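Justification of resources, computational component.

The compute hours requested in this renewal are based largely on the per-chain cost of generating structure records like the one below. Each record pairs the submitted sequence with a full structure-token output. That output is archived, and it is also reused by downstream analysis tasks.
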Amino acid sequence: MAIVCRLDELLLARGMTLVDLSEQVGVSTVNLSILKNGHAKAVRFSTLEAICVALGCQVGELLTQVPDASA
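The structure output for this chain reads:
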């Protein structure tokens, strides 16, 4: 199983940009972009919480588990 970040979809649904989220959460746009593009190796719980508060979502809406394409 692979974990997929749905940040793009959530931002679009809320009419927000990555820059807007960065300002609200206090995380650089570069780090949010790394998370958004699935290149993050780790993410702090405090960062997840701040993103979810800003987007009005649950962690399960932001990060989902899908079957691995290589399996």
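The chain has a mean pLDDT of 94. Helices lie at 7-14, 18-25, 29-36, 45-55, 59-62.
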